[in-house]
């Protein structure tokens, strides 16, 4: 398949965005899987999305710092709440996370009901607009994600429960606006899940699943003229299943 210069101009920023999200969300996703709180990313991401929606409802510029602050504040408040509930109600933490997600989603729908473009905005937050990522924002996103990775790999043993939730909330806040909630969840969970029974070089394998999934999904979405976010989700899941079958096969024999 040959790509025009215009298509390449759209694809390369989207692919870089996917690599940045993969770089941070794969190790965080492994920790989420180990803690048994798989749906935390959905809850915190939805809280960040609610912050964006409320900021838009208040008339704040969509690309201004106020929206970022609103999204980050909502995500961190959600993270603090889940930190408290994990400490006091650890046995039912997954159920609490589900309730938080449903409440945040419902609140978002209520706010968007007053917006004539509400359904379109909700679709963008869920499936994302990865093809329209601005190359100008990528260096700033790379610096931010680099800070997240430095904190995680450098201070992981010392940051504790609250530190983990805070880092997680910061990463998800940026990612949900960059690629959408569905891709955030997929990038967090699928590579970690696909490599769960393949511990040797697990991080490298998980990174490969994410990177190849974004590349294949983007190319297929352009070739078939289909929504990129949904296509990337399907590609990552398909590659994750294939990888899990291949890498677990020797252990099963």
Question: What class would the helix/strand composition place it in?
Answer: mainly alpha
Beginning-to-end CA distance, first to last residue: 39 Å
- Name of the CATH architecture: Orthogonal Bundle
Regions with little confidence, pLDDT below 50 for 5+ residues: none
Taking all residues together, what is the mean pLDDT?
85
Strand portion, in percent? under 5%
CATH topology, anyone?
ABC transporter involved in vitamin B12 uptake, BtuC
Order of helices and strands: HHHHHHHHHH
Helix content: over 70%
Number of domains: 1
Shape: globular
CATH class: Mainly Alpha
What does this structure look like?
There is one protein chain. The longest helix has 31 residues, at 5-35. The protein has a single domain (5-247), classed as ABC transporter involved in vitamin B12 uptake, BtuC, CATH 1.10.3470.10. It has 253 residues and is an all-alpha fold. Helix 2 runs antiparallel to helix 8 and helix 7 crosses helix 8. It is built from 10 helices and no strands.
């Amino acid at each position: 398949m040959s790509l025009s210069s215009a298509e390449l101009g759209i694809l390369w920023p989207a692919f870089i965005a996917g690599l940045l999200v993969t770089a941070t969300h794969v190790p965080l996703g492994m920790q989420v899987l180990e803690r048994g709180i798989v749906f935390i990313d959905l809850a915190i991401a939805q809280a960040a999305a609610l912050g964006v929606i409320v900021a838009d409802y208040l008339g704040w510029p969509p690309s201004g710092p106020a929206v970022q602050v609103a999204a980050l504040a909502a995500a961190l408040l959600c993270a603090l709440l889940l930190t408290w509930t994990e400490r006091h109600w650890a046995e039912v933490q997954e159920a609490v996370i589900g309730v938080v997600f449903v409440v945040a989603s419902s609140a978002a729908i209520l706010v968007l009901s007053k917006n004539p473009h509400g359904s379109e905005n909700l679709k963008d937050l869920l499936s994302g607009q990865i093809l329209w990522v601005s190359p100008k924002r990528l260096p700033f996103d790379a610096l931010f994600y680099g800070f997240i990775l430095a904190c995680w790999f450098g201070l992981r043993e010392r940051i504790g429960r609250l530190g983990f939730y805070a880092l997680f909330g910061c990463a998800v806040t940026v990612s949900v606006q960059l690629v959408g909630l569905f891709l955030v969840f997929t990038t967090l969970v699928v590579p970690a899940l696909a490599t769960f029974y393949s511990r040797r070089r697990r991080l490298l394998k998980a990174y490969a699943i994410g990177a190849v999934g974004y590349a294949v999904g983007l190319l297929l979405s352009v070739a078939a003229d289909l929504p990129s976010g949904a296509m990337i989700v399907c590609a990552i899941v398909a590659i994750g299943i294939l990888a899990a079958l291949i890498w677990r096969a020797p252990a099963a024999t």
